[in-house]
Write a structure and sequence with these properties.
The chain is mostly helical and about 170 residues long. It is built from 6 helices and no strands.
C-alpha cells in the first residue's frame, strides 16, 4: 500500500526527473545557439564520458591530458548520460531546497540557484577534467568561466520555470 507520504515523495522524484531533463535540454539548445551566434563549440560530452571511464576503471579522479587519451568505448553516450544525470541531480537538490522553503518554484529563484551552482564546474568539474580551478589551464580561462556562468544561469532559470509548470 502506498501511503500519502510515499506518493508525495515519488511525485517529487518524478517531477525532478522531468524538470532536470527539460532544463538540460534547454541548456543544450542554448549551447547550440551560442555556437551559431559566436562559433564557440558546445561542451564535448565524449570527454566527460572518457573522464568518467577514468574514474570508474582507473580510479583516477583528476584527468591529465584527457584530449590526447585514446577514446574509450561508448564515451559519447556515457558523457551524455552523465550530463543528464547531473541535471536530474540538480533538479532534485532544487526540489529539496523548495521543501525547506529555501527556494520557491520561480524563474528568479531558479536564476539564483543556477548562479550558485556554477561553483561546481569552476571548482570541481573543470579541475577534474584536467583544466584546473577556474579553468586556469585552458587557453582562455575567463571565457570558459563566463560560459559556465551563463549556461548555469540559463539552466537554473529552466529549473525554476520547470518547477513552476509542474507544481
Amino acid at each position: 500500500m502506498i501511503t500519502c507520504k510515499r506518493f508525495w515523495l515519488m511525485m517529487i522524484f518524478l517531477t525532478s526527473i522531468c524538470v532536470g531533463i527539460c532544463a538540460c535540454f534547454v541548456f543544450d539548445i542554448c549551447q547550440r545557439l551560442i555556437k551559431y551566434a559566436t562559433g564557440i563549440p558546445p561542451s564535448n560530452w565524449a570527454l566527460v564520458g572518457r573522464w568518467f571511464w577514468g574514474v570508474v576503471l582507473d580510479r583516477r579522479f583528476i584527468a591529465k591530458g584527457l584530449v590526447s587519451q585514446a577514446p574509450r568505448p561508448f564515451e559519447t553516450s556515457l558523457g551524455w548520460a552523465v550530463h543528464y544525470s547531473v541535471a536530474i541531480g540538480y533538479a532534485l537538490i532544487f526540489a529539496v531546497l523548495m521543501e525547506f522553503r529555501v527556494f520557491q518554484p520561480s524563474i528568479f529563484d531558479g536564476l539564483i540557484f543556477g548562479i550558485i551552482s556554477v561553483v561546481v564546474p569552476w571548482f570541481f568539474f573543470m579541475p577534474a577534467l584536467g583544466n584546473g580551478i577556474l579553468a586556469r589551464h585552458t587557453p582562455n580561462p575567463l571565457l570558459a568561466c563566463c560560459l559556465a556562468f551563463v549556461m548555469h544561469s540559463v539552466f537554473g532559470i529552466a529549473i525554476g520555470a520547470g518547477f513552476m509548470l509542474f507544481t
